[in-house]
Queue: 2 jobs
Job 1
Amino acid sequence: MSGKRIRRHRLVRALLYASSLILLGAVIGVEADDATSSESGETIGLVLTDWRYALYQTPGVEECSLGLQKGAVEQFKAQDDPLGHFKKFGGTFETRGLNGEDPNFSPMLVTDPLPFSELKTKVGFGFNLDGTSDGRATPTTLAHDKFVSPDGERVDNQLARVVGCIQGWRKTGFMAEFYAKEVETSPINRHLIEITGVHDEQNDPDVEVFIYKGRDRLVRNASGSFIAFMSHRIDERFPQFMLKTHGKIVDGVLITDPIPFARLPLVQIQMTGERDIRDLRLRLKLTPTGADGLLGGYEQLDSWWNNHSKSPGSDPGMYSPAGIYRALYRYGDGYPDPATGKPTAISVAYQVSAVRALIVHPAHQAPGVVVARADQKQ
Amino acid sequence: MKALRTLSLGALIALLALVACSSDGPKKPVSSSTSASPSEPGVPPPAPTLRLLSQSEYANSIARVFGADIIVKIRFAPVNRVDGLLSVGRSSAVVTPGALDPLDASARSIAAQVVDPAHRGFLIPCAPANINARDDKCARAFLAKAGRLIYRRPLTSDELKRAVETAGAAVGPSGDFYAGLRYTLSAMLISPEFLFVRETAEPDPGRPGAWRLDGYSKASRLSFLLWDSSPDDELLTAAGRGELHDPSGLKRQVDRMIGSPLYKQGVRAFFADFLVLEAFDTLTKDPVIYPAFTLKAVDEAREQILSTVVDHLVDRDGDYRDLFTTRHTFLSSDLAVLYRIPVDVGSQGSVPYEFREGDPRAGILTQIGFLAQYAHPGRSSSTRRGRGIREVLLCQKVPDPPPNVDFSIIEDPTAHFHTARERLAAHQQNPVCAGCHARTDPIGLGLENFDGAGQFRARENGAVIDASGKLDGNTFSDGVGLGQAVKESPALKSCIVNRLYAYSVGRKVDPNENPLLEYYESVLEQRGFRFEEMLRLMIFDRSFFAIAAPETLAASNNASMEVSHRAHQVY
């Protein structure tokens, strides 16, 4: 590639960043037909194959003060005169409010007779999102306790305190495995990650990272492994799910800059919605056929609750909707409402896995065209 | 029903011993039908053939007669591949009792679907006056119409009379008119008249003493060759009118058939047979070594070969030899993984793809299908690939390895061979092995840049792969060069002519016919080896429908054959 062409390419990149801040709601395309040339670096495509809460778990559940959370049925049975309540209001164990309210819709009108099992471990997984070592309040965060990662880093993952003792969200739990299967089978949960400008897969200080919603299926082979290097087409119907950021690769680990505001498509326990995550970032260990690592940020409380309430999982998944709603706001640590001081988001880390993919850009555009959503600010 | 089946079995057994021919008259040279060259050699005409339908011919024929929504579920028993073709093997195949069971079940299933309420309204041309009673008029109308398409000729008056009577008698116990039709129809569908393509000869009135296929036999030969299916109504009508004996009438029908969408089906059928693509039915790889080589990828690899063939030979009207160098192909999602090429297509279908100049792939030899077909489950095989090229594409015989091959040299764990070339060089130190490997390995090594699943690789065990080789004096440096060498091989031309001719006449090529094949090759050398050109050259040749006179057959070790040729009495 000539020097003139390199300069043009960099100019285009700069324009893309600038326009992404200016052109609200617009979808823009940038010519990058030389994206895979040796001068501009190679491209790594990934498609996520697994997504679950990054939780520290022990076989004996020692990390939870009262063991696993009690489920909605047990909470109902622990109420005064549950049979009389049932005869009076009918419905199911879910309608256990004083006047038959459902905690999925009116969580603050329902109280739990059994206590919430608190996550007491100091060990956890996540990112140091607030930049502090002690979890003190900052202009965008509330004071909270930090976890210590296996690497000794002080990290934020307050959502682990909400779901970490729920049987259903722990590994092999009902919701965790149900959702993992939905990540595999539902094209709504098809998350593509494209890393461009890679000159060295082990160490590269300057790469660009794009996240798209895909539209194709994951395929396993006869031994049960996901097949790498399948073609995955970008679902251009959903520009709101197209994201971009800058990143670097350090010792084979992709580390991205935060994306200010990310919307991600979601089907979870048969409920369709979307995740809204502020400061979304990735830390993925790249392998020749895939990647494993963390995706994290501050997940918005309203959309999280919307995705997790009204789910059929409270009985088989063993949790109380009223309990987790209260815990959500009790532990929320991100982006406090200026008027009330209450949190609007909560730090989270998800453990994700991926296999390499050949990402296919829309056919009506020239090969190598990169599409990115302009608006990454809420 | 059991009686009907017994009847059909008896007829089948009798038919196996039957070859069509009748009275007398010495064979005389005949004039060319359309494009005969003055240099065309005269060759002794052969006997008519009796050939078992293939599975695809069976299914396509049912679709032809009753429509594509009639579900055909059957898997034919395998037949021997003879002289490189299953279709030739079918000319000596028999239906064993074990093979008859699924044919019987299929016949019953098809018949039940045809007469069920969802289909009878448009597949049966009339309705009975009383559904609970026999209606010979309606039964006759249906059986005469369907029987003509099933038997590929009009039923004889006796056949139709028996069929109508059987249908009527079957109404009695069941009290259902359509049950009677169902019983009779299922009997027709396991009749040898349907399951076997029986050629019938008749004296050629234009050439006293000479014999030819009758019109309906010509129609079947044309239809199974060009459409992989039984004749349609128009072709049978033309046959009945004698139009296929007339050069212009024959040309009119051939033009129509080649212009039909079904022509591609016929081309696919020939190449599926010629290229031994039934091997894909059992093709598997070690999923640990080749995790992307799934069953779906296998199906798509087979389809890629056929799509490339049809695109090149039909849509582009290309020269057959260029199949080994063409950069045009098609990719589908699960197959593209093995190529490491992104494709803008979902789980179904495929998209056209052209390999760039300089790409290590060009031609069908470098497609996943060929490369994986001729390889081991866990590694490549230059020997298998070389043998595949020799035997399938060049019609050259490579002997089987002896049962006591000594692999100790190449399996020595301390030997540290990096590449297949090194292993094979060591193996060839054994002079017993060297003879055959010298014929296969220098060819197959040209494809060593592709592993056992057909995926590209520049190195093997860290060593740069040397993919150079030689074929018939032509040297090459890689798989693309090998394709060019195969393209330029004289054996490639004679092989396709031989196989296509044998396929089109449904029998082994008689050594006496070699001058005819050499003539075809010389003509095609001038005109180009375009597939349609090849077909037309053979079909319009004066020899294509010629049949030996009965006494000639009797004199040439066919005395035991019962002479039965006669014109069918059309009802």
Note: Chain B is about 50% helix and 5% strand.
Job 2
Amino acid sequence: MGLLDSESGKRRLLCVEVPAIERYNEGRDPAFRIQVTRMGTALVLRYVLKPGHNRYSVETRLPSSYPIVPPETRVVTPLKHCPHLLEGQTLCLWRQGSTRETSRWDAARFTSVFAVLAAWRWLACYEIWHETGEWPLPEAK
Amino acid sequence: MDFRPLDELERKQLTNALRGNAEQGRVLLLDRRDTSFAGSADEVPDEEVISAIRSVPCHY
């Protein structure tokens, strides 16, 4: 299923993703709203999160095979190297081979806004790690 | 970026909220306007359902 070039992909966008993003943006300061742009066969959500006192610019990329393939999120604002941070400041959020349900991306249940909220939680952990050197949540198996 | 850290009380509150979310399913509440941390709760207020974090999957 191609997100932008198949009927099922377009239906997913129009009926699930766009309404969820519009709802997220309601009542939000303009600087913190999600902006959606097309990059080739992918969509990129750009937004700002502020779990503590610091603002982080973040991008979540929905590949053409989304939602079967989970979204990929990277922080544009420079970070210190820390746990759960991959190359290119990509956040390690899902573990598709995990036997634990909550460790996996579930295309039937989650929208791209879930990825935004997961990024917020990751950044909240980062703010604590930055001061204590300890990631506040234990790693799932 | 000039990093401005949380003070000790803010850090404790956020740590407890994150652990309560991960271990007991408590809800993390975000300020509607700027996504700043706004506390935690047992249930999601209707008007905050799109901003609150409860069942967001993650591997930690």
Note: Chain A touches chain B through 52 residues (CB under 8 Å).
